[in-house]
Amino acid sequence: MVSSTVNVVRYTALFAGVFYGICHRRSLQKAHDHEKEQHAIHHREQLIVQAKQAWRQKQESAKGDGVVTDPEDPRFDLEKLVAKWEKESL
After folding, report:
1. What is the four-CA torsion angle of 20, 25, 26, 29, rounded to 10 degrees?
2. Residue 48 contacts residue 57 (beta carbons within 8 Å)
3. Is the overall model pTM greater than 0.85, yes or no?
4. Percent of the chain beyond pLDDT 90?
5. 78 contacts 85 by C-beta, under 8 angstroms
6. CA 54 to CA 63: how far, in whole Å?
7. Alpha-carbon radius of gyration of the chain
8. Tens place of pLDDT per residue across the chain (90 aa)
9. How far apart are CA 73 and CA 13, in angstroms?
10. CA within 20 to 30 Å of 21's CA: 5, 12, 27, 80, which one?
11. How far apart are CA 49 and CA 88, in angstroms?
């Protein structure tokens, strides 16, 4: 027969291991969530930089040839825009 002291030690070790596992899992999950959040922030920053570059290129190309591509603009001329597209496609 196993003495009650041995059973107490066994269950104490078991519960200590379970408690350690829970604490360790929480710390790993917290680190993973932080890393995932930082990655998402970095990705959004990269998208913003790319969008700014694309907008800047679009503005520079619109200034260079004098063609207004915004149909809401009163200076918009469809014939000039079509001519520009034909020239670019060749």
Report:
1. 160
2. no
3. no
4. 57
5. no
6. 14
7. 33
8. 779 999 999 999 999 999 999 999 999 999 999 999 999 999 999 999 999 998 888 777 666 667 777 788 888 889 988 988 888 888
9. 76
10. 5
11. 26
Q: Are 84 and 67 in contact (CB under 8 A)?
A: yes
**C-alpha dihedral (34, 37, 38, 42), degrees to nearest 10:** 170
Contact 42, 49 (CB under 8 A): no
Q: How far is CA 9 from the centre of its chain?
A: 49
CB 48 within 8 A of CB 41: no
Which residue is associated with the tokens 């930082």? 38
pLDDT digits (tens, 9 = 90+) for 13-25: 999 999 999 999 9
Residue with token string 């291991």: 17
